[in-house]
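FW: tagging you since you asked about this chain on Friday. Here's the raw sequence from the shared folder, copied in full. Didn't touch anything.
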Amino acid sequence: MAADKRATRLGVLAVVGTLLFSLVGARLWFLQTVEAESLQQQVDTTKVRTKPLIPVRGRIFDADGRILADNQRSLSVAVDWELLRRESQREEIFRRLSGWVDVPAEDMEERFKRGIFDTLLPMPVAEDVDERTAIAIQERVEDLPGVTIIEDSERIYPFAPLASHVIGYMGAITVETKDQYTSNGYSLNERVGQFGVELSMEEQLHGEWGYIKFEVDNRNRIVRVIEEVPPINGRDVQLTIDLDQQQYAEQVLETQLRLRQQAVAKNPLDRETGFTTRAFYETDAETGEKIYYPEEMPLKAPAGAVVVQNYETGHIIAMASYPTFDNRWFESDLSGGKFAEIFDVTDLEAVEYDPVTSVPIPDTVKTDPDRSSLVNRAIQGRYNLGSSFKPFTAYAALSTGLLSTTDTYEDTGTYRMVSVDEYQCELGRVRCVYKNANCPFGGPCVYGTVDVNTALAVSSDAFFYRIGELIMEENEQKDLLQQQVEMFGFGSDTGINLPFEFNGTVPDRELKERYAALGVISKDEGTGYFTGDNVQLAIGQGLLSASPLQLAVAYGAIANAGFVMKAEIIKAVFEAGVPESDRQGYADISKARFAAEPNVDGEVVRQIPMPAEIRDEINSGLRRVITGPGHFSDYLHSTTGERLFFDYPASAIQIAGKTGTAQGRNNLPWNDSSAFAAYSIDPEQPYTVVAYLEKSGYGATAAGPVVKCMFLQLSGIAPTDPVMVSELLDTNSVFQAPPKKLNDTSCFSRRGGSS
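HL: got it, structure written out here
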């Protein structure tokens, strides 16, 4: 029996052995035949290394060829990902590197955890390392395994902070944008445009990566080059901006804002008591308490913008926004609290401190949008336009036949709506009476008999209130005023090649419903679009909002007889490698090769019907704003601009324009913003200039002088400073940008009196 069992066992073992050898044989056959090709590819892959070749980013020039954005060789310290996977090993490498590159190990760890770097390339832990440190690190490879020095380039801005809002800045690819960039072939280690032209022209400026494939032996030594594809460098971009005009615009804007901060505004007469008492208080909506105001208040004048445009081509000659910043900060070390220190937007007046610890009370720490510099107010400003909007209301009335150029209106200082019955007015359910702005004697100005021309010249609110009511009440198309002004570009973007442009708003039923849902206005207000809303729209108030650039485009359409031009900031795009000029800081544009045909003549967005009699009437009124004469009723009323332009020389570019004072919170004058828009009447010098100064007072006293100075500079009369290459950025500074000052402010001169 024992022998039989042994024989059985041996038989089973033989069968199992046979099966195992059969399986091994089958597997060997499968690997050597079916999978032979794929396995050979894997072997080959382990022997092939691919090194990416980085394209050189394109440069940015101004209209004269000044190099506004360039590249400079830099060295970065990076660590191979294989050395970073184990936490203990990673901590040790970061600890050793920290002292060499002056970057805390904690910051390196944070970079690792962000997960936004390309795992096919070493992870950078420090950029812009000096040559001496890089050499020292390379000499200590045994102590710093996996650490390499990468030669790269950093972005430099030779004329910074000039035009920082236009040029923009660079930054790391973020978690939110990494999918977008990687799908377009980017490495996550790259820096990309974050603002301005650096962002809007990213695709042109970036170029395309190249690579080199080579075979290595088991000791990682290069055996042979398999394939090499050179990178395609980014294209060079030329802007329409002229840095001479840009510097002057930034200087005149900041200088005027600082001067306005030294001015005061008097508390207004109380509208509810027929302008007989002073309004020293308002009632708090939540507590019901009376908040008292002084008889006068300093103007805050925190911010503003200037736009200079060629109205024949749409080219932007200058675009200034304040507060401004130095875009070189984003190429320096902004880690830790440095960014918060430089770009702090805390509302300092609202902060309250604990009396014991002197620590800010959290609920009182709020942001102050007036302090934000990372906003281009020229294209992102959301502003009421005040009386600077009136030319477009005038056009609407004339083009629709509501008025003719010979029609007149008797302005008694107030306007009572005719479409609302007396009973509703007496109940106070509807505001029926609207007043002109105050004259020096204390009540609303009375202008007497006015036509379109005169109403524009002296800025009669009552004349335009009437248009706002009648154009809605006497037409089946209740949105006729909206249709007319939208033709000039209000309520839509200008097409400028800059990011984050604000479209603006032209109020209607849909907008009011949306604002009511958002809590911007009350639910009752959001139930419909009423005639009173149109009355406010007619004088550039209410829910109308637009950017200074939109206003410039619209005034340009009056100047060029009805052509709405696309706002253009890009003059040309060149193939990579435009040579440098003999003049320091310039590229030799004469030797550049166009990547695309430049749009020299500009692009017409639409043509507005502009009969000569309508344009002449509006142009004549806007010309009178500058030159006078005023208008006599009870006494002589000056036009809103003639006291400012009393000394404007005949040799300067002659202009037509309009003031605007946009009422702010609670109609208190220290919250009023100042607008002024003007255009050249000489088609050989086709400039439009718009200035908007927030919380700075009357249009003729704040924004007006800025526009006047700009035209004197464009005329070659106002002296300008030479544009100089910037000094090195002081990284110990806490200021976003050094102050700019206009040395000669004689162009601000104004004959006494208010307007």
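FW: The first helix runs from residue 2 to 32.
HL: agreed, and The chain has a mean pLDDT of 88.
FW: great, closing this out.
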